[in-house]
Amino acid sequence: MDRRIKSSRDQEKRLAQKLGGATTAGSGNGWAVKNDVRNATWSVECKTTAAARFSLTHRDLINAEKNAILDLRDMAFAIEMCGRRWVVVSEDIFLRLIAHEEDT
Fold first, then answer.
1. Does residue 21 contact residue 42 with C-beta atoms inside 8 Å?
2. pTM metric for this prediction
3. Burial class of residue 18 in the structure, from the number of CB atoms within 10 Å of its CB (0-12 exposed, 13-18 middle, 19+ buried)
4. pLDDT single digits (tens) 25-42
5. Residues 38, 53: contact at Cβ < 8 Å?
6. Which of 41, 68, 71, 100 places its Cα 20 to 30 Å from the Cα of 33?
7. What residues have CB less than 8 Å from 68, skipping those under 6 apart?
């Protein structure tokens, strides 16, 4: 198996386990559920690269958000790059998470 595909699948499996969710089989070619990982709350699009840069476009974010909304979930965009893991969410979601953190 191609190293890039294996890295991508490993990222998805690891995140699904941490979220208590599941990976989405055929997420890139399915018609119903598109993002790579989901649980009851989140729909996450995953990308991984060994390169020192990754181009995240407005279109990428809008597509992932649209797919999450259609699935009645919040969207996150997980990027694994150069051995580090990052998660991008909208400001609305970020502020909601902070407010929830302050309430507890």
1. yes
2. 0.88
3. exposed
4. 765 555 566 899 999 999
5. no
6. 100
7. 35, 42, 43, 74, 75
